[in-house]
């Protein structure tokens, strides 16, 4: 049973680093007049660079889990084809750092704002999965995707 968890708000920043592809949100946020104050999420909370500090803060606060999303534009920058190893490496480092502090990584496996993946899945929504790299952390049961109308 999870008592206390932290949650990433869905945007890690570092949009132009390590081979990350462009998303629907990137296009929207950079279109003049779409955001009142002309801000964007290119840096956001900078979770991409600051995850180790964030994890230490979570551990210090007694959290036992961290829920975050995978930016598929970082894994498959073009939506299909070659996997971006730098993206895989980032999430491996993040998960390893969580496990090192006894925090359970809870991964949201799909975000609809990623145009490339949305096209590939015909707008299916994938439920959350628990991703772990050791055998002592229990896995959550997964369910079949459901079509989003």
Automatic annotation (TrEMBL):
Q: InterPro entries, alphabetically?
A: GH (IPR017853), Glyco_hydro_1 (IPR001360)
- What Pfam families would the database entry show? Glyco_hydro_1
- Where, by residue number, does the polypeptide cross the bilayer? none
One GO biological process this protein is involved in is: carbohydrate metabolic process
Q: Which domain of life is it from?
A: Eukaryota
For this chain, one GO molecular function annotation is:
beta-glucosidase activity
What family is reported?
A: Belongs to the glycosyl hydrolase 1 family.
**What is the name of the protein in this document?**
Beta-glucosidase 6
Q: Which organism is it from?
A: Panicum miliaceum
């Amino acid at each position: 049973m999870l008592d206390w968890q932290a949650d990433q708000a869905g945007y890690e920043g570092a949009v132009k680093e390590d081979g990350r592809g462009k998303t629907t949100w990137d296009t929207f946020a950079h279109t003049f007049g779409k955001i009142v104050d002309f801000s964007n999420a290119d840096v956001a909370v900078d979770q991409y660079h600051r995850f180790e500090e964030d994890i230490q803060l979570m551990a210090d606060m007694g959290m036992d889990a961290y829920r975050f999303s995978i930016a598929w534009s970082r894994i498959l920058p073009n939506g299909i084809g070659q996997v971006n190893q730098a993206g895989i490496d980032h999430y491996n480092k993040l998960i390893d750092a969580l496990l090192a502090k006894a925090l359970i990584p809870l991964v949201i496996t799909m975000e609809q704002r990623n145009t490339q993946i949305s096209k590939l899945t015909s707008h299916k929504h994938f439920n959350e999965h628990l991703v772990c790299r050791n055998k002592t952390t229990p896995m959550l049961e997964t369910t079949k995707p459901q079509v989003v109308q």
